[in-house]
Amino acid sequence: MSNAAKLMTGITLVTVPTIVFGGLTVLGILTSGSAGMPGGPELTVAQYALFRAGHAHAGVLVILSIVVQVLLDHARLPVGMTWSARVAAPLAAICVSGGFFGVAYIPALRTVLYSGAALVCYATLTTGVGLLRSLRRPRPVADEVATAPRPVTV
Questions:
Q1: CB 70 within 8 A of CB 5
Q2: DSSP 8-state class, residue 33
Q3: Pairs from 47-52 (Cβ < 8 Å, separation ≥ 24)
Q4: What does the pLDDT look like over 105-132, one tens digit per residue?
């Protein structure tokens, strides 16, 4: 695993306790405080659904982000594009889950959710294309020299 992958995976793993805390908070809200954290505000049916979706997406996208970090080590991409995908993957988890939580209260925050969805698409498509590009091996330099036409000497 490259140092870049270790860095981004380490940063991403440090965020996992926030997902656990969020899960306990959602559980407390859904059970009116009988489980998880003490009960929070009363929510509408739509808000319940958005809270559940936000928490579920946070966990799944963090796992996907970690997988992407490892896969990018094997992708054939320019350095800048690799780094942008490395950053986009965990940022997508934050934006998508945060977007769901935000939309529960302020519908205009759906742009955060849509931005996160775009980041998921960017990170996964970039990684996928980079992996497909890595299947094509460039011709070794020695082959090019051996097959190059030799100058004719008279």
A1: yes
A2: T
A3: 47/104, 47/105, 50/100, 50/101, 50/103, 50/104, 51/26, 51/100, 51/101, 51/104, 52/26
A4: 999 999 999 999 999 999 999 999 999 9
Record the pTM: 0.79
What confidence tens digit (pLDDT) does each residue in 78-88 have?
A: 999 999 999 99
The amino acid at residue 44 is T
- Torsion angle of alpha carbons 93, 99, 101, 102, nearest 10°? 150
* Size (the chain), residues: 154
Distance, CA of 85 to CA of 78 (rounded, Å): 11
Domains of the chain (ranges, CATH numbers): 3-134 (1.20.120)
Torsion, Cα of 124, 129, 131, 136 (10° steps) = 180
Mean pLDDT computed over 4-11: 94
pLDDT for 18 equals 87
Confirm if 24 and 102 have CB atoms less than 8 A apart: no
Spell out the alpha helix ranges (H) of the chain: 3-14, 16-30, 45-72, 79-103, 110-135, 141-147
